[in-house]
Amino acid sequence: MQSLSSLLGSEAWISYFSQTDEKYKELPVYCLMTQRYGATLNTPRITTVYQENTDAKSQVDMLQFMKGFNVKLCYYYEYGVKEDIEFIRNLFPQTENIAIISDNSYAGLSQMKYVENEIAEHFPDLQIIHIDGRTMDMAQARQAMKNLPERTAAMLCVWRYDSKKVTHISNAEYVFKLANNLPVFSLTGSGQLKNPSGSESLRPTGQEDRRQTRLLLLSQ
Question: pTM for the full model?
Answer without folding.
Answer: 0.81
